[in-house]
Amino acid sequence: MDDLQLLRHVWEQPTPAAPAVRSAARARLVEFAGADSTRNTPRRVAVIRPAHRRAWLVSAGTAAVAAAASAAVVISTTATGPGTSEIQTTAYVVQHAERALAAVQHGSAIQQTQFAAARNLLLGANLTPPSRSPNWLGHLRFGKVVAFSYRDRTLMAGFRNGKLLLEAGPSARTRANGHQAPARPVLVNRDANTWYRPLSMSAPALRRMTCPEVSRALYDAPFLMTRIEASPTRWIALIRAALSCRQFKAQGKQRVDGDLAIKLTATPKEVAHQQGAREVLWVNSKTFLPVRISFGRDSATADFRWLQPTATNLAKLQVIVPAGAVARRLPAHTGILFWQLSQWK
Amino acid sequence: MAAVTDRFPVQQLSDAAIIQESHLEPENFARIFDRYYGPVHDYAARRLGQSLADDVAAETFLVAFTWRARYDISRPDAGPWLFGIASNLVSRHRRAEARRYRAMARTGLAEVDDGQLDRADARIDAQSQRMQLASALAQVRAADRDVLLLVAWAGLTSAEAGEALGIPAGTARSRLHRARAQIRAALTHIGQSSERTNNG
Question: Does A136 touch chain B (CB under 8 A)?
């Protein structure tokens, strides 16, 4: 008997999943499928990219910046606003944006992300993993989700018609520096006046990705928007990686919410990778931090704001359980997942 | 009746066709679940144990559904794709997997009884071999182990394992070769040690 046969025959034969577990998993899939945002909309069917893809490992990415200089694009000087006479290259913008994002990732600012559901879509939420978690949130629908992220902590809040319905985040205070008390994340369903614990919001470190993987992850980001592994916090890491991979080129300046921003658009190669989806990124012309990204998929757009890590702003990362809310326990390691929905009742 | 069936065999839709259909009728994706849940669950259970396998198998199909637009419809069989997703999900539990191998290397005990092994000596042999295998598996590099176990437990070819993991077929072959060599070496080494112990 060779080693493969030994592995097949000597290892224990696994017990099939219990019928109840299988049925629950199937029901969850059917429910998930029923809530699919693309129902009745023909999807672009992609061909998986060849396995022999070029392995550009994304690290700090500054090497790519130097390379990008050779393909520098002069920003249009016809745009309005101060500083338009400056001639900046894609490499210059990318380099400064990368530096700014690196500083943010080291705690220089609190990231506020507002993700509004794309046209004709709403957002929903569910507890994960689906096989163990009751569907307590299945009825909730949001028009927008706001996330605050600082270092490794994230708070996500779902709103409908301006009303806060759901909050998930640390119940402990976050400090700018020094010792941090354990986050003890909780989930508050203000619609049902209930709160849940313990909630798992820890995200594994972002693994190193190849440029095609970065491209794919950015394409999928708005679709499965706040899965912890792909939460808005991660979008910034993905944007940083995409900049390193030279997936954007500078196109000019525009005003975004009154502030002057540099517009970066996906390169033709990137658009081809994204099955035609045209990502557009705007970075503040002074701080070089992202202010908006249009994912080019389902018209999904996210706005970023960057807050000083003051005590007042850090308080936004803390979930306060309302008085009188009913406590419920969740199974261990339960997480939360948001996604876009096309239909609701 | 049989003749009618022979003359007009029921055409079973390929996985690719079902996935393509699911873009318009998302619920159709449940047919992929019906076809592959069992094998995917078995694969995950062998690697992580029963309790984690329930979660991994369920999540595999949610992830697959979410990413179905990326499925290469020129490939009729979705097995490698699903096992690839399952492998990625298993990789989130590397520590649990390593703990499992270490525990089995110490005790040889799995979390289920060997109902299929009738004789006590067969059970002891299996237990001893399982300990050796677990010990050897724990030493194989994670990337090599992924290929090895996709071939051994998911029944994929090395090329399919490469496809599942998004690596070139040649890389998958060399990883498989390296993992098997390592397993064989460990088994031989352990065998020689035990012979020396028995003889001494």
Answer: no
Residue B5 belongs to a domain: no
Output phi, psi for B105, to 5 deg: -65, -30
Of B59, B72, B133, the CB nearest to A47: B72
Q: Return residues 23-62 of B near A (CB < 8 Å).
A: 23-24, 26-27, 29-30, 33-34, 37-38, 41-42, 45-46, 50, 53-55, 57-59, 61-62
Report the predicted TM-score, pTM, of the whole model to 2 decimal places: 0.49
pLDDT at position B116? 43
Whether residue A332 lies within 8 A of chain B, CB to CB, comes out as: no
**Do A14 and B42 count as a contact with CB atoms less than 8 A apart?**
yes
Tell whether the model's pLDDT for residue A83 goes beyond 60. no
The ipTM value here is: 0.78
Q: Which domain holds residue B100?
A: 13-199
Instruction: Give domain status of residue B195, yes or no.
Output: yes
Question: Residue B72 belongs to a domain with what CATH number?
Answer: 1.10.10.10
pLDDT single digits (tens) A262-300: 999 888 877 777 667 788 999 998 888 999 998 776 667
| C-alpha pair distances (Å), B100 with each of A28, A132, A332 | 28, 22, 20
Name the CA dihedral angle for B147, B150, B155, B157, rounded to a multiple of 10 degrees: -30
